[in-house]
Amino acid sequence: MKITTSFLHLEHTAALDEKVQEASMKLEKFFKDKGTIKWSCYVKNGQHFAEIYYHAPHCEYHAKAVSENMYHTIDMAVEKIEKQAFKKKDKFNKLHRENPDMIILDPDSAWQDHADDEDVA
């Protein structure tokens, strides 16, 4: 997973860099593929903003958080991404749980009209 970080109107410290890396590792448990995470951390009007963009071939997530403390803002943004990932996972699981007994063995004949089993006998 590729991680890029940018800071605007904010001093880039080792502690902030470590916090971003730690938060990115926390997100890796959800995204095991070769996606990219882009962090944008900045200060505007005394408020600390953190934005996360996650992009992969099959999905894309975005979260933005604001608070008085950059460390807390980063945690809030990660929580938002986690909620999005859980929501998508639940949606996927519900879709595949709707009819678990239905199995199509021959996809070519699945769309053809068939007589009922009683009429065929």
The helix fraction, in percent, is 25-40%
The end-to-end span amounts to 58 Å
CATH superfamily: Ribosome hibernation promotion factor-like
Number of strands: 4
Could you spell the SSE succession in H and E letters? EHEEEHH
The mean pLDDT is 83
Uncertain segments are none
SS-based structural class? alpha+beta
Large-scale geometry = elongated
Provide a descriptive summary of the structure in words:
This is Ribosome-associated translation inhibitor RaiA. Pfam families: Ribosomal_S30AE. This protein has helices spanning 14-28, 70-97, 117-120, and strands at residues 2-8, 36-44, 47-55, 60-67. By secondary structure, the protein is α+β, with helices and mostly antiparallel strands. The chain has a single domain (2-97), classed as Double Stranded RNA Binding Domain, CATH 3.30.160.100. It has a four-stranded mixed beta sheet, with helices on one face. Helix 1 packs parallel to helix 2. The longest helix is centred in the C-terminal third of the chain and has 28 residues, at 70-97. The protein is elongated. The mean pLDDT is 83.
